[in-house]
């Protein structure tokens, strides 16, 4: 039986096996939800970069650019870190460079995997169906918050475990814990997450609309995958 | 309001604040449950050491010694890593040196805290009452399994959050997650833990009796605390 493992934060990645594994990176609020939305609206590619300077370099070469630090937009870039920014005609066929506090680092840290996919509640079903058709073990890498675990990415991991549980064994306690939390909260995720630290952080920034949007399941049939240094959309 | 934080594994300790904090170390299966049992049976002190060699050094100086690796007893030492070993007359007034796979390292890593306490379900109420009388924030350090998170220590953290929740704010998502898991499982912890990785590991070793014992709440009124290099019993 294939296995599904959950790494609760990139700080624990060295304890998990990435080789011979398909990694699904989740940064639900909001990096991977933005990426999935962008692909649903026809973006050509997204290059995840580590620094704001690199982002600026790509911008000078004609890329659209998005930079976020501490949940806030960095000035001088076209795109916001809100998924609604990506629902725009300028996105279609564009190449984007993106740097975020947690999500882009999690993606670049997973490079040695068989494949690196971008997951969110928005494309949960598409991810699950794609994985079912593959023969590899799966690891969900939760982006967390500055190295710490967070609730929303753990819940996404639990949601994917839930979708795959008939054909994948849960590798370790982190997978079981994520799954149990998701089962407890799934009937009302917005309320279940209401006390979480990142929700409080985002609510201070006044973006309740983004939160509600990012918690919707199965909105888009896209599976972004890392090819070289860029994410592209895989057809499923 | 005081805060309660949960560090899910010693690998994440650098992201948490130990200074000005009381740390409660939990290695429920079975190091801290053994320690609490030993103090309930009158041990004088327990020195947690990192290596089997150090353990042997203390043994040569007249200490009773206990060494565990990979959930199994190491030959040549008086004490087992089962809590039942410590329910013995030879324990009364004795000084013990102990090394375990996860628990003793977690204790020594927390040295810079205001106080380092040893927690388990067996002394949950004693720990909670002691903390209520103190003015410091609390951090539960789950010993985990070789750096990974585990279910049983996370559940202990959640149990302590549950006991303290009226007078302590939950610091971050790890505290909320632990508490939610405990609330979900508390009515039948043995069954809730039945699929966890360490339970499976221990059951292969045939020690169901230890598991059942270690999950009992509030059996002993002892609070082991680190003084210098040794744990001693604090009266509460």
Automatic annotation (TrEMBL), chains A, B:
Gene3D superfamilies: ComB-like (3.90.1560.10). One of its GO terms (molecular function) is sulfopyruvate decarboxylase activity. Its cofactor is Mg(2+). Keywords: Hydrolase, Magnesium. SUPFAM superfamilies: ComB-like. It catalyses: (2R)-O-phospho-3-sulfolactate + H2O = (2R)-3-sulfolactate + phosphate. Signal peptide: none annotated. Belongs to the ComB family. PANTHER family: 2-PHOSPHOSULFOLACTATE PHOSPHATASE-RELATED (PTHR37311). HAMAP family: ComB. This is Probable 2-phosphosulfolactate phosphatase. It comes from Spirosoma linguale (strain ATCC 33905 / DSM 74 / LMG 10896 / Claus 1). The lineage of its organism: Bacteria, Pseudomonadati, Bacteroidota, Cytophagia, Cytophagales. The gene is comB.
